[in-house]
Every structure is written in structure tokens, then in C-alpha cells.
Amino acid sequence: MLVAGLKQSKKTVEANEAKLAYVANDADENIVKSFLQICKKTNVEVNRDLDMKELAKLCKIEVPTAVVVVTI
């Protein structure tokens, strides 16, 4: 299952329910900095190959998103 959006993705990672995180390569670093730190702390792999529009397509949503998490 995919979880889109920074707030929900943070909750998923903190609950140890994430196996992979996507962070858009065009996302504002100030916005995703704390999320990246949480991923590092919980050993969640981060992929930065896609941009915000591509992540939205991946989740089948219309609004570009900075963060998407794949759950366990």
C-alpha cells in the first residue's frame, strides 16, 4: 500500500510500518529534512529518483506530492 503526503508518511515511518520511502528530487529540502532524518533513524531506505508529479502519478492522485511511503 502507498501512503502519500508528508504528515501521513511520517506517522507511517514512526510506527515502523514503512519499508521504502520516496522523496521527490524537486521537493524543498527544508520541508523534507526532518522526514529524511526519521527515515535514517528507523533504517527506512529512501529513493530520490522521481519528482513530485511522478510521485503523484504513482499514487494515482492529481496533486504533486513530496513524500510517498510503501508500507509493509
Detailed description of the structure:
With about 70 residues, the protein is of the alpha+beta class. Helix content is about 40%, strand content about 25%. The chain has a four-stranded mixed β-sheet with strand order 1-4-2-3, with helices on both faces. Helix 1 packs parallel to helix 2 (about 30-40). The protein is globular and about 30 Å long. The chain starts with a strand and ends with a strand.
Number of domains: 1
Order of helices and strands: EHEHEHE
CATH superfamily: Ribosomal protein L30/S12
**What is the rounded distance between the termini?**
8 Å
CATH class: Alpha Beta
Q: Categorize the overall geometry.
A: globular
Q: What name does the CATH topology carry?
A: 60s Ribosomal Protein L30, Chain: A
Q: How would you sum up this structure in a few lines?
A:
With 72 residues, this protein is α+β, with helices and mostly antiparallel strands. It has helices spanning 6-14, 29-41, 52-59, and strands at residues 2-4, 18-23, 45-47, 67-71. A 4-stranded mixed sheet has the order 1-4-2-3, with helices on both faces.
